[in-house]
Design a protein that fits this description.
The chain contains 1 helix and 8 strands. A hairpin with a 4-residue loop joins strand 7 and strand 8. It is globular. Strands 1-2-3-4 form a 4-stranded antiparallel sheet. It is mostly beta strands.
Length: 111
């Protein structure tokens, strides 16, 4: 779930779908707004003439996964404190809630 390469200097600009064009993760960091999580992020992708918002309001640090959607977009987990994290998957139009990921067995119990 939390591989060291996910926190490399290449993020928050990374190619999530393999098309050679980088997507950008736009951060807002504030413990006053986001508590222990400390940040929120949006994802934009290049389109002719500008950028398109494809994800809004993920609370936590975006961690790019090696798993992919059917369309070939890499999954993104909103990491942060705790042992249960949201995994977002691209549905052809935007990133949406896909499932919860346990950092350790039983981490999502009771959610």
């Amino acid at each position: 779930l939390f591989d060291e390469d996910q926190l490399s200097d290449t993020l928050p600009i990374t190619d999530l779908n393999g098309d050679g064009q980088p997507e950008v993760m736009v951060y807002d960091a504030s413990s006053e707004c986001y508590g222990n999580t400390g940040m929120s992020f949006n994802i934009v992708t290049p389109v002719p003439g500008g950028w398109k918002l494809i994800f809004e309001g993920g609370e936590g640090m975006p961690l790019v996964q090696n798993t992919k959607s059917a369309a070939g977009w890499r999954d993104v987990v909103a990491g942060g404190p705790g042992f249960c994290h949201e995994l977002y998957r691209y549905n052809g139009k935007a990133y949406v809630d896909f499932k919860q990921v346990e950092e350790m067995k039983g981490g999502c119990s009771g959610r």
